[in-house]
């Protein structure tokens, strides 16, 4: 689901996971907060719905998919890698 401007956007963190979705944009030397902002505010026109963050290399990868959902709603396993975290966007009703 894509968030609208009326939604509050939060991210669910999965430690040690990354998705197999195609990379839409890659940034280096960013903090986690800066990476989340780039996803939330659709930097470089990427319709970001998830991102991966490597805390050791300070690498931010914006993705356009959730990485674990098939079109029928069933789950796909995520790949694991120790220093990467996957952040999946959730839309909450506006406050």
Automatic annotation (TrEMBL):
Limits of the Apple domain: 3-91
Record Pfam families: PAN_1 (PF00024)
Record-linked InterPro entries: Pan_app (IPR003609)
Xref: PROSITE patterns: PAN
Organism superkingdom: Eukaryota
Descriptive protein name: Apple domain-containing protein
């Amino acid at each position: 689901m894509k968030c609208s401007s009326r939604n509050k956007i939060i991210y669910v963190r999965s430690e040690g996971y990354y998705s197999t979705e195609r990379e839409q944009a890659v940034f280096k030397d960013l903090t986690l907060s800066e990476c989340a902002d780039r996803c939330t505010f659709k930097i470089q026109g990427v319709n970001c719905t998830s991102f991966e963050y490597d805390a050791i290399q300070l690498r931010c990868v914006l993705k356009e998919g959730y990485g674990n959902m098939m079109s029928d709603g069933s789950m796909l396993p995520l790949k694991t890698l120790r220093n990467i975290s996957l952040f999946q966007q959730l839309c909450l009703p506006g406050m």
